[in-house]
Amino acid sequence: MAAAAAPRRRARADFVLAWLGLCLSTAWAVDRSNFKTCDQSSFCKRQRSVQPGSSPYRALLDTLELGPDALTVHLVNEVTKAVLLLELQGLQGNMTRIRIDELKPLRARYRVPDVLVADPPTARLSISGRDENSVELTVAEGPYKIILTGRPFRLDLLENRSLVLSVNARGLMVFEHQRLPRNSFSDKVSLTFGSIWDKIKNLFSREGTKEPAEGDGTPEEEAAGKADKPEENSEKDDDEPGAWEEMFKTHSDSKPFGPTSVGLDFSLPGMEHVYGIPEHADSLRLKVTEGGEPYRLYNLDVFQYELYNPMALYGSVPVLLAHNVHRDLGIFWLNAAETWVDISSNTAGKTLFGKMLDYLQGGGETPQTDVRWMSESGIIDVFLLLGPTASDVFRQYTSLTGTQALPPLFSLGYHQSRWNYRDEADVIDVDQGFDNHDLPCDVIWLDIEHADGKRYFTWDSSRFPQPLAMLGHLAGKRRKLVAIVDPHIKVDSGYRVHEELRSLGLYVKTRDGSDYEGWCWPGSVGYPDFTNVKMRDWWANMFNFDKYEGSASNLYVWNDMNEPSVFNGPEVTMLKDARHHGGWEHRDVHNIYGLYVHMATAQGLIQRSGGVERPFVLSRAFFAGSQRFGAVWTGDNTAEWDHLKITIPMCLSLGLVGISFCGADVGGFFKNPDPELLLRWYQMGAYQPFYRAHSHMDTGRREPWLLPPEYLGPVRDALRQRYALLPFWYTLFYRAHRDGHPVMRPLWVQYPKDVTTFSQDDQFMLGDSLLVHPVAEPGARGVQVYLPGQGEVWYDVQSYQKHHGPQTLYLPVTLSSIPVFQRGGTIIPRWERVRRSSDCMKDDPITLYVAISPQGTAEGELYLDDGHTFNYQTQNEYLLRKFTFSGNTLTSSSADPRGHLETPIWIERVVILGAGKPASVLLRSEGLPESVLTFQHSAETSVLTLRKPGVRVSADWSIHLR
Ligand code: NOJ
After folding, report:
1. Ligand 1 centroid – CA 23 distance (Å)
2. Ligand 1 pocket check for 454: Cβ under 6 Å
3. What distance in Å separates the CA atoms of residue 600 and residue 595, rounded to the nearest whole number?
4. Do residues 836 and 893 both lie within one domain?
5. 301: annotated active-site residue
6. 512 catalytic per annotation
7. Basic and acidic residues bias: where (predicted)?
8. For 620-677, how does the pLDDT look when each residue is reduced to its tens digit (9 = 90+)?
9. Segments forming the whole domain that contains residue 376
10. Could you tell me which residues come within 8 angstroms of residue 401 by beta carbon, excluding any fewer than 6 positions away?
């Protein structure tokens, strides 16, 4: 008893100190000393100490084997003699996969399961040329050739003889093969237990080595770290501090398996602009990291995060995109361990003038970006997504990891949250506040205080005695509730969730096999091992209505703290030597843990409805593939103007790597925004995918009606604009779901040849139709908007004024302005009868906004379904309509004949921007006599409004301007 209590007391003391540290810190900035720099992360330091030069790795071309799905070849490190196995695959759709593992690992290395949606279909490789040091490979059906060079090892991908990408060209590959610690065990035991060594050797022989099985590979954990193999221990790095045990502050990482990191470099000739690898609070375009810190990918709960630096945040997606005027490509580094990414460029620091001078002097190197990935464990598993366009890269990446889940319609509406709404009466008041002030709202949120002592899946009975009645009240208003369910479980023998998890052995374990305990909101907590499918199934079952008492079908879920956050752990997270199912260390799975929590919760919400209803789950941590499970947000931001601005690059970066459903706490989580900042945040949030106001418990209440009237009006307008555009949002999400296209996009995706757009992250596009330039400065009287596109026209959606691109436009703004432009050539559907919630609007008639291009054309689409079930998938119950304007005729036709939907929705108005005045307007619709439509034309704005076409949205029809 006493022995068990001591570590707990120590943990509590650590926690109290950490908590005091947090509370006493007066400066509004992250305490950087809580988080490692590359130098403090021993593997990053070791990897980074390797300088560009000749690689010690050689591909043994005589071991090359070409199978139907892959080529394999041995790589030898000529210094250590360690042998690796390289597996190279051509994949269908212009992708290449490279895997490198140890040929005979002492212990299977972690291969990330559950991220790929399927085994990617391969494209046959054939040998098309060969000399003594290289082999040329051709990929079937692809324009690419791959050259494999033996000494030093290198891969070059060429398209039509020009080099697109090289692997290990800088010779930075480092693969720390597993070995046994020097002077540890054998010196002491060899005399006594000489025969043990033979046994261990047998265990580690090829036959004895477990093949890593995706999903549940079981490493030979017992052996490693307890034996020695002297001839393998001559390497210098064995002796480096941190290689076999690492300290950070008071935390020790026991590293029983020694150094296991992997690293590889990729050279991208012709590339100067790279993006992606979220999550960082930094600019959209990634910066060169030489001489500074690499970008870090390690899911962390960072208190008061700082802007414009490469520190890790709550989620990680190890995908980088490169873009130039000719092409796009992507690198997907599938590894769930702590990862650092270094970026260097031969043009970094050169001014445009300097580059021009180089060019004029006939010299100057071709610009090139080099990217170096370094991960603490696992294997090298990398997908080269060869584009060539950005939309190809989106399609390629989402063909591997899945597309954005189609959100239920309500979740695209407005969400009202704070930490915390006090009790049921408070919730009902807030709900009523929206109605009293004529503000639409779909969801009210409950944070951790709603549960009984932070025992998730329960309710505090004094403050929430009748949750079902409260949910029923909201359902009557056609609104929803989201309740938080965090993935740490209070250690409390009276708490059923804890008791079951403990007795089922489903908690993460310490390296010694006992349940791992850390500190989080409830005090001492256990961490369910979500990497175990049994755990996920158990968790999913917890959302059944009979298990989660007081829940109902309009209750949805928020998963927070799933990095996982451990207040008394190293860097506020879990010890790396904690053990997961299958014997894997937390080190191996850290970055995927949060995805598994999200996955299990989404599964639970689907299951509770018998597979009928689409889930909505918000998660703070994420990884590659998280888009399949719901939404994410950018965590604990601050009520400051710079935090408002950073939401744009943060969500754009996520969209580029598949996660479209992104948002930031409107108003800022920490501190109190002044009315102007809060208003500008409402206006910006209205045009970002996930729209939720949220704030810390120490902040003042800030429901919109608490604002002075001159601010409340514009907030109402912003909310109404959001709701009016719901059919457009829903259609964009359908596209993201079907084709992997980001909903919120950087301008360069739409204008790939316009270099002005390549670094822009103060404005963005929604689909290919709307350009948004939020007002993000206090006291702004105007904004400079860049309107791209030679020969493009843009219509201001407030004034309908037409502007020509490309130009930088100074647009005067007032408090009620949100500069938004509709691109000429697009058609946008809107619901203009804004009501209490999206559910009240879902059968409302549609207004089409047709913005005519200089060529007199426009097109757009509309996706509709029931808004909440999977029937669109299982029964084809949906509509995808295509609208085309050309030759003064607007036509509506089906864009997907498989879909069908019984719907009362009709077209109530058509607004044509940039139109002359017609003599008459005729409507033709299937099965109806031709009719004449009444219209109104404004000569001043060139806006033609056609009243009441009255046609069904599902019908084919055409409108003719004569
Ligand atoms: C941290 C989350 O980021 C924040 O949104 C939430 O309010 C608190 N945890 C309390 O649950």
Report:
1. 15
2. no
3. 9
4. yes
5. no
6. no
7. 223-233
8. 999 999 999 999 999 999 999 999 999 999 999 999 999 999 999 999 999 999 999 9
9. 47-177+257-401
10. 115, 116, 117, 332, 624, 625, 627, 628, 658
